[in-house]
Amino acid sequence: MNVIATTLTTLPFAQFKRSPNFYFVYDAVYLVCALAFVATLHASGWRSPVQDFAWWLPLMLPVATYVVIMAHVFIHNASHGNFPKSINRIVGEICGVIVLTKFASWEIVHRRHHRYSDDPERDPHPAERHYWRYAWNTLINVEKQLQQQYFDLYGETPETRRHEKIRSALSFVSGVALLFGWLTLLGAPMFFVLYLPAFFLAALFVIFFNWAGHNAHKADGPIEPANLDHGIFWILNRMFFGIFYHGNHHKMAMLFNPMRMPVRERSEPTAQGERDEAEAA
Q1: Within 10 A of 180 (CB to CB), how many other CB atoms are there?
Q2: Is the pTM of this model over 0.70?
Q3: Which residues have a Cβ under 8 Å from the Cβ of 7 and sit 6 or more positions away?
Q4: What integer pLDDT is reported at residue 264 of this predicted model?
Q5: Distance of alpha carbon 21 from alpha carbon 104, whole angstroms
């Protein structure tokens, strides 16, 4: 029971640092749970509430997209330990199931982003001016930087490279099992008309948030964390807990809503966000 309680109140990166085999256990548990979930649904004779395409399904896409984006917002906050400790890991894992990345991958990669923000070699998604090129690089760099994080902790040798190839394959298989779980639960119409489109639209939005949040949407000026609160950003900040106050977030990552930064902290050019990350670990 103590092991379970500790796991449910500890961020994945802390476990990752303590055990080189953390990911094997983590993804194996995900794979077993996803397969057990699918088997249980089949054994119980589960039928999704929508068996055939209905005209109103596409009308629900904005709602579904909003839900998935909010899952990203909440997993982001859980990555910084911004929920009460008793539920933070649970919230992160639930949101990880919704956004398909799984909480550990989201948290470990995002922690690396804060540590090496806009470093072209070590940031998982360093900002650049062209959105679609940035979006593509984000997708292909995340797995690369997850592997690099392992090498940073445990060294890069033929043995650790083999370890990461196996880990990557297991992670992919567990992700496919998770996706199949959603298909079984929702049924084909809801899965293909609502969930998958919402997943891709939310992913593009989160990539856009990172891109604009580092000022890369402007034709000139420095690429660095910035606060945006004009035009469409004003609306989006109030829909998504101040998500475009990214400059504030990098200063004080423990704020659930970076719009609420204390006045005394707003002008301090500190690495407070990174210090908070270190303390949480």
Answers
A1: 15
A2: yes
A3: 15, 89
A4: 58
A5: 13
